[in-house]
Amino acid sequence: MSKVISANEAWLTALGQYGVINVANTTPVAADFVAILPLTDCVVNTITENNATGSLNGAVLPAGVLVPGDFTAITLTSGRARLYRKAPATT
What we know:
The protein is mainly beta. Helices cover 9% and strands 45% of the residues. Strands 1-6-2-5-3-4 form a six-stranded antiparallel sheet, with no helix packed on it. It is built from one helix and six strands, in the order H-E-E-E-E-E-E.
């Protein structure tokens, strides 16, 4: 089930205020993130995405094209990207 977030949380997420992870190598990254912004063309080795049909494994993500989703892990084959962290859970 997806979580409804406020407009404020959406803006903070979009601006990276919940944190970003800069990926510039093939080291696996395990974290909750909501968007991938390729800084260069990126080739995805493996990716884990919640609530998705199909897979982005092996996909080429073009530089500058924001890829939204509900991601929990990624490993690149090549390229550099910024991963935008998910807003913290609230009760």
